[in-house]
Write a structure and sequence with these properties.
The complex is a heterotetramer, with two copies of chain A (152 residues) and two copies of chain B (427 residues). Chain A is α+β, with helices and mostly antiparallel strands and 152 residues long. Chain A contains five helices and three strands; from the N terminus they run αβββαααα. Chain A has one domain (9-147): Sufe protein. Chain: A (Alpha-Beta Complex), CATH 3.90.1010. The relative contact order of chain A is 0.20. Chain B is globular and about 75 Å long. Chain B has helices spanning 2-6, 11-15, 44-56, 67-87, 101-112, 143-152, 172-175, 198-207, 227-230, 255-260, 295-311, 313-332, 361-370, 383-388, 405-423, and strands at residues 24-26, 29-30, 32-33, 95-98, 130-134, 155-159, 180-186, 211-215, 234-238, 249-253, 271-274, 279-281, 337-339, 351-356, 373-374, 376-378, 394-398. Helices cover 38% and strands 16% of the residues of chain B. In chain B, the strands form five sheets. In chain B, strands 4-10-9-8-7-5-6 form a seven-stranded mixed sheet, with helices on both faces. In chain B, strands 13-14-17-16 form a four-stranded antiparallel sheet, with helices on one face. The chains are: A alpha+beta (152), B alpha/beta (427). The structure holds pyridoxal-5'-phosphate (2 copies).
């Protein structure tokens, strides 16, 4: 079994020196996600600038405990999303989800998901898919929450 | 049997898949199994699917990160998808595995009675609420609702049976009111064979805001079912009545309802975060599957669905309808025999219960058994139904994919012999 | 392995009975299954027992009067007797079949919370009462008690864990008081391997009039158990952890307690008389076995008991003790590895959990898996225990009758490789 | 399969013309027993004369619905017990129970259980054992109840 497709240098780089880590103020929404199978946890805060689809991620801060894959995924995602608009992020998140559920039959497009291609090796390991996607799910939940809060 | 073969349904080929049908009860007595409504037999495809799983992929599901655990989890979740497709569930996530249909019905009854303030009003049964069942229910779809009423202070009401062995819907409007939180009804009576007008009932229930719980134990094994279009909110059935293993049942529930319901059994694999002070719970279906599930049995049940699917449920239904008609017509000819159920027709399916005047069903069954004809006797877990018709019990023949016309004829002949046997003593 | 053979325990002969152990994970990787604490593998004797039953005697139990139903009922009740003997239960009637240990524990928790005035005081938990558990419990023996407390207004308290991975009994006298209705505790921790001083705890609990519920999931499969002399009132365990099928668990309870307890799941086969207005219930164990039971699985579990009995549970325990000692000693030599559990000795048995400094167990397990070493990673359904020791999870190896010393060595070597693998990235 | 060992002429005689049937006054205890598997029921009333082991069954009346075996058993039992002392009945009941649980390997002693030997053919049919023993269990429950009532 080939572990190097899973544990790339990029994964370990992010695991050791995660980007944008830590919880910061201000934030519009905070969510806490857990993978009950293995106990991995992420707290994620999202701060937007602007309205609707054109809102821009001003900050995305987080505190993640978990395996190398899940921590690296949070770090890569934060770096990828900060500064982009919600509209720009949508296809990135969709591509990420699709590749991760393809069981290794699709390779990620680096132009779309950047460093996150380093994580797509996990798609061959069904039990690691959740590790990678947990932070993405947390982002989506946080986004939803900013909208719900905005509507109030 | 020839007739069936020409219709394209080859019952002898089917029988060859069921090893137990070769057995004899004693040297002279082949097995004539007419108790499939209680439990069906298993084809070797189902047995083999379980054995293959156990000798190749067995491991703890969902909790393991290793490859064997992944293979087991794939088998388990793959089985959920196969079964979901078989019953027309919009999503496999709407299927909860239980130990039998009885647990599935208890699950709904207990969850609705948890009384947590955070549960939406329509999923919470309390004092002043009403639960509506029918007089023809199997105890599995009656006693849990009696108990829910007792625990919560709700009131149990019921739709009565009419003399013609169907539900008496005359007073439906006064039985089904704004107070009704739940309508629990079976799709097909396990005694009468009566099919309930489920679409109509579900519509009426939804019009007053009640949930509809369907006991599908006797319909899923015997006819094509498309849950998405039946109009019900929950459905329960058992593996062992549809050529699958014992130890597994299914609760199907609409996704948005399951998502809002509190758990029933609690423990491992259904949690989100656990501290000593308190616990939060996972999303469905995991929320309702506490502990190590029946993995090999799920694989076996999926194989049973594949088997039935390959036969074609339309063909299965036609086959069993023909047997039912033949049984009813044969039995009606016999002196003192009264079929307890509607005449053969579109509104009834295959459970043929009957009474022999002056003879207790236990004695009837004993003589049939001596001829290898295995039928069920007693109240068939539907005691109120029998009381309604002034009966202490009935004798019931029920069929499955492997039942032949010759076996139905053996039942009718057997009843002739029963009558003769007891006549000897009636000097 | 030679050593074991000369001790009279022929592990290779045992392995030959388990078809799955021949499988490879991929071409180069034999299966090294060290996750038996999660679920064990099945010997062909167990598989065959189920298949034989299904192809010869399968029918609905207890409800049928025909010969096939009698054969099935005999098999089912015979299995109950075999299992009762295996665990030293005074009577087979004290055994209730459930779907798993989790259901068994929920059964007790729900029954004690039914709140019926007719139930004797000591079998009724209500406001002001206390339930005592421990900080090391599996979620299955924790969450049902949290939920019972929530439903009834009782208070949950717990015995804490000490730094030495045993229960801290310093404050037992203030935790276990006249208010305590139930003490629920496991016999052996599924993470630490710690054996609890169950006789002492049971005595203390009985002194204040509390019931003692034992989670025996990790003891029954691994050591000789004589329930009659353990001093507990209830015990729960699962078939799938003791070479038996999934889909079956056992609740053992003292006859006089079961006889006075209200039912939990309701439906067919557990009733005495049913009317629309109300229902009375059968005697135990039937009262607690609603619906069609897991018949073939009971037969399989009895075969597993026979298999373990033939090996001799003293021999099984000695075999696994030797493996545990070997694993602990091997792992302790490795840099950064810390065993989470007591040292090898009489007060601990075989679940060997460990931590590798700076590495998440999920990553550890992944590398071990690439070498065919199948261990479990995470919190093992004992989240509070892990939190107590400041851990997010551990890696756990666990053993069974078929585990070899060579497999334990493969684990230790595998951990060496894990350390090397990750060191590469730690530049 | 030999049905004649089960359905003897005596069984049908008692089934058709049950002895001592019907519920009569006075009675010291009344019990209601059910076989939940098949729904057979018996209501049994017991009237004793005298005290303790030497008390005599003055009357035993009953209402039984069920199969031929269970009805015949009630009839035969009533005829056997009326007029005997509790002490005399004990070995009769014990013998009955033993034979019925012997799966046909023991034949009943006519000197002890009289006409009830005609029922012991049912011991070969496990599902019929309960039919035969239901009335005997009801007698024992009624006896216990007279004692409990007596102690109050
Ligand atoms: C100590 C302990 N208790 C309870 C359980 C729950 O058993 P099951 O999942 O079979 O219900 C387990 C196993 O998961 C266990 O190890
Ligand atoms: C109509 C009906 N409902 C419910 C049940 C209960 O099913 P199970 O015993 O498998 O839980 C049965 C079968 O016994 C049935 O026929």
């Amino acid at each position: 079994m080939d572990l190097t497709s899973l544990y790339t240098d990029i994964v370990f780089e992010h695991d050791k020196r995660p980007l944008h880590a830590g919880l910061r103020e201000p934030f519009a929404a905070e969510v806490h996600h857990v993978n009950p199978t293995c106990g991995d946890e992420i707290t994620l805060r999202l701060q937007l600038e602007g309205e609707g689809e054109q809102a821009r991620v001003a900050d995305l801060s987080y505190d993640a405990t978990g395996c190398a894959m899940s921590r690296a995924s949070a770090s890569i995602m934060a770096d990828l999303l900060i500064g982009r608009t919600v509209a720009e992020i949508e296809p990135i998140a969709a591509h990420m989800e699709q590749v991760m559920h393809a069981r290794g039959k699709e390779t990620g497009d680096e132009d779309v998901i950047g460093d996150a291609v380093a994580l797509t090796g996990a798609a061959k390991f069904p039990n690691r898919v959740k590790c990678v996607l947990m932070s993405w799910k947390a982002y989506q939940a946080a986004l939803l929450e900013t909208r719900v809060l905005g509507e109030r | 049997m020839d007739e069936q073969t020409t219709r394209g349904y080859d019952v002898e080929a089917v029988r060859a898949d069921f090893p137990i049908l070769q057995r004899r009860l004693d040297e002279d007595t082949p097995l004539i199994y007419l108790d499939s409504g209680a439990t069906s037999q298993r084809p070797r495809q189902v047995i083999d699917a379980e054995v293959d799983f156990l000798t190749r992929d067995n491991a703890a599901v969902k909790r393991g990160a290793h490859r064997l655990a992944e293979a087991a989890t794939d088998a388990y979740e793959g089985a959920r998808e196969t079964i979901a497709r078989f019953i027309g569930a919009p999503s496999a996530e709407e299927l909860v595995f239980t130990k039998n249909a009885t647990e599935a019905l208890n699950l709904v009854a207990y969850s609705l009675g948890q009384g947590e303030a955070s549960t939406p009003e329509h999923l919470r049964v309390g004092p002043g609420d009403e639960i509506l069942v029918t007089e023809m229910e199997h105890h599995a779809n009656l006693v849990p609702w009696q108990e829910l009423a007792r625990r919560t202070g709700a009131t149990l009401r019921w739709i009565p049976l009419a003399d013609d062995f169907t539900l008496d819907l005359t007073d439906l409007d006064s039985l089904l009111t704004e107070r009704t939180k739940v309508l629990a009804v079976s799709h097909q009576s396990n005694v009468l064979g009566t099919l309930t007008p489920i679409r109509r009932l579900a519509e009426a229930a939804h019009a007053v805001g009640a949930l509809v719980v369907l006991d599908a134990c006797q319909s899923v094994p015997h006819m094509p079912i498309d849950l998405a279009t039946l109009g019900v909110d929950f459905a329960a059935f058992s593996g062992h009545k549809m050529l699958g293993p014992t130890g597994i049942g299914v609760l199907w529930g609409r996704a948005e309802l399951l998502a809002a319901m509190p758990p029933f059994l609690t423990g491992g694999s259904m949690i989100e975060v656990v501290t000593m002070e308190g616990t939060t719970f996972a999303e469905p279906p995991a929320r309702f599957e506490a502990g190590t599930p029946m993995v090999s049995q799920a694989v076996g049940l999926a194989a049973a669905c594949d088997y039935l699917g390959a036969l074609g449920m339309e063909n299965v239904a036609a086959h069993e309808r023909a047997l039912t008609t033949r049984a009813i017509e044969g039995l009606r000819e016999l002196p003192g025999v009264r079929v307890i159920g509607p005449d053969a027709g579109p509104d009834r399916a295959g459970a043929v219960a009957f009474d022999l005047a002056g003879r207790h069903p236990h004695d009837v069954g004993q003589v049939l058994d001596s001829r290898g004809v295995e039928v069920r006797v007693g109240h068939h877990c539907a005691w109120p139904l029998h009381r309604r018709y002034g009966l202490h019990g009935t004798t019931r023949a029920s069929f499955s994919v492997y039942t032949t016309e010759a076996e139905v004829d053996a039942l009718v002949e057997g009843m002739g012999a029963v009558i003769d046997f007891f006549a000897r003593f009636d000097r």
